[in-house]
Design goal:
164 residues; alpha/beta; eight-stranded mixed β-sheet; 8 strands
């Protein structure tokens, strides 16, 4: 935006085609770079090569290591958290700084969006709880009170049979 604003203010004809071509070449040269493992806090496994076809398994992005079983608590926003969330597996659409106190009481986190460097993933690693990110539709697919196993090593959520 700064460049565009400068181009407009300077009223100088700019060669966009060469600028775009130059940036595309830099992007291609840098496309094989990876983020060092130290940024992630823990060395995480490589994503599975095959997609899980079983509807009792949801595949996401492993974001904080650990494996726990527990009961789902859907939290679509901070304003609808009425019930006790302690020791629950919180299922959220996303996280930001406002979620930190709520996540402190969680047993694990499942998020519809995010990755290994998202806020929820970083907080989960700081709190030492498993997290699986980027499970689209998790807040509608999973239900309050449902038992699941969250595997932060593999980035999976397994829906468990009810113990009733």
């Amino acid at each position: 935006w700064d460049e565009i604003e400068d181009w407009i203010k300077s009223d100088i004809a700019t060669d966009f085609v060469s600028k775009i071509s130059q940036r595309r070449q830099i992007f291609i040269e840098d496309s094989d770079r990876t983020v060092p493992a130290i940024i992630y806090g823990n060395i995480l496994p490589k994503p599975r090569s095959k997609t899980i076809q079983n509807p009792a398994f949801l595949q996401g992005i492993p974001a904080s290591i650990g494996c726990v079983e527990g009961t789902v608590k859907i939290c679509r926003s901070l304003t609808n958290i009425i019930d006790q969330t302690e020791n629950m597996i919180l299922v959220v659409p996303y996280t930001d700084a406002g979620w930190s106190p709520i996540l402190l009481t969680a047993k694990a986190i499942i998020s519809e969006v995010g990755g290994q460097l998202s806020h929820g993933a970083i907080i989960a690693r700081e709190y030492g709880i498993p997290a699986v990110m980027n499970i689209q539709g998790a807040t509608t697919y999973l239900k309050d009170g449902q038992r699941v196993r969250v595997d932060g090593y593999q980035g999976t959520v397994e829906i468990l049979e009810s113990r009733e």
